[in-house]
Amino acid sequence: MVVIGAPVFTFHVEGHAAIFDGATTIFQITDDPTAAAVSPSGASIVATMNPALTMLLELLPEARRAAPEGRQLPAAPVAADPIPVEHLLHTLSRAVPGDAALVEEVPSHRPAMQKFMPMRGQDSFYTMASGGLGYSLPAAVGMALGRGERRTVCLIGDGSAMYSIQALWTAAQRKLPLTVVVINNAGYGAMRSFSQVMQVRNVPGLDLPGIDFVKIAQGLGCDAVRVTKSSELAAALRRGLAHDGVSVIDVVVDSAVPLLYAQKN
Q1: Which of 25, 140, 237, 256 could lock 154 by a disulfide, CB 3.0 to 4.6 Å apart?
Q2: Residue among 106, 127, 135 nearest 253 (CA)
Q3: Count H helices, E strands: the chain?
Q4: 3-state secondary structure of 103
């Protein structure tokens, strides 16, 4: 395994990782000495990326195998009310423009996102590192500043959005081509799941009822709409993605959160 330009690896939850048991040979090429120093396994090469990758390509033998087929996407999820997260993500994937960039911070729904929202290639997907929250909304504003007229889409949970919701004001003042889709399950879903794994009951502060993201967004100068029914979803996404400026789509989803982390032994 060759890891290029990234750590080996980042983990949100401490636990055993079988990949480090010795059966897999790991090489890392990075320009970050700290990332090289903390790698738990394998050999790291600290280098400038462009010449290192150019040399690597020159050393590789000519490939003789056929290119593998792309993965088959699952069938379209069934629409229902309350809106299933899988249905939202599938509908959004079909609505997002081909040249758009997605900036993501939905830790409660990442397995579903990886299943129903495939990356489209270079400059198509950005996210925060490991489990740090509050990064992606202001990061999406920066992305929109740097990408000109191309649409940037921020997919964010309601809990994550509250870390830095004021970033919407900057985006509105700059009239950026930014669409923010809030997956609203009325709480910190990832922490709900994590508390189940840790077998901690009655954790305070995990529920976030009564937050009106439409009024907040409008007060900060953005176009905003709330979606509570599957029948309204596709039209709301099309409208928001075509809006000239900043749009916020607050999608109220099924509050049930899957078990995200394996049970500790």
Answers
A1: 140
A2: 106
A3: 10, 9
A4: strand
Name the strand (E) or helix (H) holding 227.
strand 223-227
Paired tokens of 76:
């379209």
Kindly report, residue by residue over 75-103, the tens digit of the pLDDT. Answer: 999 999 999 999 999 999 999 999 999 99
Long-range contacts at 38-43 (CB < 8 A, ≥ 24 apart): 38/7, 39/7, 39/8, 40/8, 41/8, 42/1, 42/3, 42/8
**Residue 229: CB partners within 8 Å, gap ≥ 6?**
81, 83
What are 180's two structure tokens? 């923010």
Six-digit token string for 204: 């305070």
Cβ neighbours of 7 (radius 10 Å): 18
Look at the pTM and tell me if it is higher than 0.70: yes
